[in-house]
Amino acid sequence: MRLIPTRAWAATILFTAFAVLPFLAVALDDSYLVVIASRILCYAIAALALDLILGYGGMVSFGHAAYLGIGAYAVAILSRAGITDLGLHMLAAIAAAAVFALVTGAISLRTRGIYFIMITLAFAQMAYFFFVSLSAYGGDDGVTLNARSTLFGQTILEDDTALYYAVLVLLIGLYLLAVAITRSRFGRVLTGARENPVRMQAIGFSPFRYQLTAFVISGCMTAIAGVMLANQTSYVSPAFMNWHRSGELVVMVVFGGIGNLLGAVAGATIALLLEEWLAVLTKHWPLLFGLILVLVVLYSRDGLSGLFRRRR
Amino acid sequence: MNLLEVRNLRKSYGALKVTDDLDLSVEEGELHAIIGPNGAGKSTLIAQLSGQATSDGGSVRFDGTEMMGRPMHRRVRVGMSRSFQITSILPGFTALENVASAVQARSGSSFRFFSPVAEERDLNDQALAALDRVGIADRAFFNAGSLSHGEKRQLELAIALATRPRLLLLDEPLAGTSGAEADRLIQVMRGLKGDVTLVLIEHDMDAVFALADRVSVLVYGRIIATGTPDRIRDDPQVRAAYLGEEEGT
Ligand SMILES: Nc1ncnc2c1ncn2[C@@H]1O[C@H](COP(=O)(O)OP(=O)(O)OP(=O)(O)O)[C@@H](O)[C@H]1O
Ligand SMILES: [Mg+2]
Predict the structure, then answer these.
(1) For residue B101, which residues of chain A lie inside 8 Å, CB to CB?
(2) Rounded mean pLDDT of A51-63?
(3) Residues near A1 by Cβ (< 8 Å), separated by ≥ 6?
(4) What is the dihedral of CA A287, A292, A293, A295, to 10 degrees?
(5) What number is the average pLDDT over the span A236-249?
(6) In the prediction, which pLDDT does B244 show?
(7) Is any Cβ of chain B less than 8 angstroms from the Cβ of A189?
(8) How would DSSP label each residue in B137-176?
(9) Residue A52 carries which DSSP code?
């Protein structure tokens, strides 16, 4: 007997819940709900992207916030130049992220384990300090965006609910893309290289090319999250790429269960909700949050998704 | 013609010369066994030939082409494949997926991102055939990590076969297998003779003398004798250096 819905069912339920959420917000007359949920969805995209390389590729990037920042600054810089189209913002963000990921990934992937973690962190810190020193865009303080990106010339995303649905559509699309990738030929090589790189070489694969490609895909997906996050907050600063934030992304992935794409979405959701709720309860909320994380990791090595899995 | 031509191959770990100016010729189609005491440098030689380990010097020519400096994955692609003395599999994959990955590596690009690889009939059929050949087709859908030690050894050979090698370097394929499993693997190797050129490292002397066309004896990083099994069995130098302990048998 299977008590557990298959992954497709779980995904359908979760995304349907997100889709009806704005109606709930109207019913409760709580417009803040849509705002926080938009934020959650942006982070869900980033966590999903990170899980692709962390969970499936075994690459623990501790600098993924850099890509959030790259996406966000793409919006800020292009907007100031008078280019407001969301599609162009996306293109610029993806291109910049691809270049950054290609260069830093090619170097980082020469190392393993703790060194990989440290070197990705170092590159993200370099990006952070680059934008801190960028005084034209407010340096440390960042810049406020006067308007959100436009869609086909329309200012439709100024509406919080419209923005929310735009992020949701992106999340669902990227989730389906990520699932397809993990099940593809490429995904098999990526996972195999995590399991046993020497074995993969001995059957004729060079893991590096596949790992680097995955690293770039993940960076680009995270930059998309950054574009939407900048629109959601209407504010861009180097804090987007702070190393705390890279750590939070790793926590979300671990929370949801490493190597479980839907878990990453759930992990981002629950981590941010906990943060909201615990912050109301006490100003010492990080302590409580840490405790919960420890318990989840101790009792379910597969994170939250493991709690729902059939015991064998 | 010699399919594999090794000249002056060298490798040291610190002061230890593990491969000491080694020469070796393997004819196309033969099963060439390499025997030698523990620590003689047999596994290191396989690692050097396959490209897993770098060499300090010398030449490794495969089918006339110099292989020195080529990484392992590129040697596999031209037909040099190897198995590991210490089982090396993808434990989280099923047995079938382990072998199908090897088929995938030589059939088309793996930069394909959208269609599910598990549904590629061609890969799965070839993988199943390889599993069947080594006698573990009934384990196809088991996680490789959960197989018994002997079954893992059989899987190891199936993976190597699935790369469709012209030259197969086998590092103690029988180590740790039960009698029945060993018989099956010996039968598979016998079946490969003629189609695939084999370099077999093995401590099981009965298997070696039953299978080999020629035998080379490796001691302290050097080949001290090469010849037919009968010649090697009777060679006094070999007996002194290596077979002495088995005099009574
Ligand atoms: N990575 C290494 N670093 C240092 N020394 C090594 C290394 N690998 C092997 N050696 C040494 O090189 C020598 C040859 O080892 P190798 O594994 O090639 O022997 P072998 O003939 O395969 O032995 P066995 O029959 O036990 O498998 C041994 O003395 C071993 O200790
Ligand atoms: Mg050995």
Answers:
(1) 188-189, 192, 200, 203
(2) 96
(3) none
(4) 130
(5) 92
(6) 55
(7) yes
(8) GGGTTSBGGGS-HHHHHHHHHHHHHHT--SEEEEE-TTTT
(9) I
- Which structure tokens are listed for A45? 């995209």
pLDDT, average across residues A126-151: 91
Q: Which H, E and C letters describe A147-205, residue by residue?
A: CCCEECCECHHHCHHHHHHHHHHHHHHHHHHHHHHHHEHHHHHHHHHHHCHHHHHHCCC
Predicted local confidence at residue A289, as pLDDT = 80
Encoded amino acid at A244, one letter: H
- pLDDT-derived band at A237 (thresholds 50, 70, 90) equals very high
Range of the domain at A29: 17-242
**Whether the Cβ atoms of residue B125 and residue B96 lie closer than 8 Å to each other:** no
Chain A neighbors of B70, CB-CB under 8 A: none
Classify residue A25: in a domain, yes or no.
Answer: yes
- What average pLDDT does range B236-241 have in this prediction? 81
What total of structural domains would you count in chain A? Answer: 1
Q: Give the residues surrounding ligand 1 with Cβ less than 6 Å away.
A: B 13, 18, 36, 38-44, 85
Environment class of A238 (CB within 10 Å of its CB; exposed 0-12, middle 13-18, buried 19+): buried
Does residue A275 fall inside a structural domain? no
B13, B16, B35, B50: which to mutate for ligand 1, most atoms within 8 A of CB? B13
Residue A5: is its pLDDT beyond 80?
Answer: no
Query: What are the distances in angstroms from CA B167 to CA A46, A300, B10?
Result: 46, 46, 21
Three-class secondary structure of residue B204 per DSSP = coil
Q: Which CATH superfamily is domain B1-79+166-249 in?
A: P-loop containing nucleotide triphosphate hydrolases (3.40.50.300)
Could you give phi then psi for residue B122, rounded to 5 degrees? -60, -45
Residue A124 placed within a domain: yes
d(CA A242, CA A223): 15
A244 in contact with chain B, both atoms CB, cutoff 8 A? no
Residues, chain B: 249
Beta carbons of A201 and B101 less than 8 Å apart: no
CB contact set of A308 (below 8 Å; sequence gap of 6+): A4, A10
As a whole number of angstroms, the longest Cα–Cα distance in chain B is 63
CA distances from A123 to A2, A31, A247 (A): 45, 38, 14
| Beta carbons within 8 Å of B184's beta carbon, 6+ residues apart | B134, B135, B154
Residue B4's pLDDT is 97
* Residue-level pLDDT at A287: 82
For chain A, percent of residues with pLDDT exceeding 90: 73
Number of neighbours of residue A296 by Cβ within 10 angstroms:
21
Parse chain B into domains and list their residue ranges: 1-79+166-249, 89-164
Indicate the range of A25-29, A282-286, B158-162, B209-213 predicted with least confidence: A282-286
Closest CA to B117 of B131, B133, B134, B103: B103
**Residue A136 within a domain:** yes
Does A1 have pLDDT greater than 70? no
Query: What's the mean per-residue pLDDT of chain A?
Result: 91
